[in-house]
Design brief:
The protein is mainly α. It has three domains: 10-61, no CATH class; 66-211 and 262-276, Ferritin, core subunit, four-helix bundle (Ferritin); 231-260, no CATH class. The protein has helices at residues 3-8, 17-31, 38-46, 49-61, 66-91, 101-124, 153-174, 182-205, 252-258, 266-273; strands at 235-236, 239-240. Strand 1 and strand 2 (239-240) form a beta hairpin. The longest helix has 26 residues, at 66-91. The N and C termini lie far apart (51 Å). Residues 1-16 and 47-63 have low confidence and may be disordered.
Length: 278
């Protein structure tokens, strides 16, 4: 078929017959009362063939926007970082105290499953999951000499706290980009809640509160401050927390900042993670 003859054909007839049949079947189902998103229904009502086909394609095939895949790939990078960190810690001789090995073994297993789940989700959306990069857990020398060696358990726990606190805020920061993809959003929120549990557990293991106070990095080194910047925000959903009833009686500003975790943008998380990329 020549280009000129193709251009002369009606748009619908240029679509692969199998796809056209699937779209037609879905259109008939919608006409018979099948559930459909409000957005899809509105676009179909416009009557434009390109718009209608696009709406039906998204409805039938659940095509992922590029930003959804971007979020999933970025989340996979973070999970690779955590899984590699914990698995190396578990494998190291004499690093982790015997009383804590079971806990960190469980966390390592969680992170490995997170990696596998994200890889599967990305593949299901027709993309290739990123390969695990090499990591530098000295953070480009900021933690000079750290090599998972015996006697370095305190540094290991400090890094675990930094990574988990980052993960909680990172997932929250990307949730809005997944709002139109229920499967991706559900997976991200499921992982987010587990990362929060990890963070609380590791923080308490280090003798800290299970949550962040203000923008305090506690006793972590200065280069980790970006993980905590912005956590002292006292406005939520447009409401100034200091104006709420019982503000002072319920702990004031300190308690207010502890009651909420703030999102981190992708660029903020990238700046945090980059020193750990070899």
């Amino acid at each position: 078929m020549t280009t000129s003859s193709l251009n002369a054909m009606p748009l619908v007839e240029t679509i692969d017959p199998d796809i056209r049949e699937t779209l037609a079947q879905r259109e008939a189902e919608i006409a018979d009362g099948a559930s459909v998103s409000t957005r899809t229904a509105a676009l179909l009502a416009l009557g434009s063939i390109p718009i209608a086909l696009g709406a039906l394609a998204r409805d039938v095939y659940g095509q992922a926007p590029s930003d959804v895949l971007d979020v999933l790939q970025f989340a996979l990078l973070l999970e690779h970082l955590e899984a590699d960190f914990y698995n190396r810690g578990i494998a190291a001789s004499g690093l982790i105290d015997a009383a804590d090995r079971t806990m960190f073994t469980v966390i390592a297993g969680h992170e490995t499953v997170h990696v596998q789940a994200l890889q599967t989700l990305i593949s299901q959306k027709g993309a290739s999951p990123i390969a695990k990069p090499a990591f530098d857990f000295t953070a480009k020398g900021a933690l000079a000499g750290f090599n998972f060696g015996a006697g370095q358990y305190e540094t290991f726990k400090a890094l675990a706290m930094a990574f988990e606190d980052t993960g909680v805020r990172a997932y929250k920061g990307q949730a809005s980009r997944l709002i139109n993809d229920k499967a991706a959003l559900g997976a991200a929120l499921s992982i987010h809640s587990v990362e929060a549990r990890h963070a609380a557990q590791v923080r308490r293991l280090r003798g800290k509160k299970g949550w962040i106070t203000g923008n305090s990095r506690e006793d972590l080194p200065a280069f980790t401050q970006g993980i905590y910047d912005g956590e002292d925000n006292a406005t939520q959903g447009g409401a100034m927390l200091s104006t709420l009833p019982g503000f002072s009686a319920n702990g004031g500003l300190v308690a207010a900042t502890e009651a909420f975790d703030e999102p981190l943008t992708k660029s903020q998380v990238t700046a945090i993670v980059t020193p750990f990329l070899a």
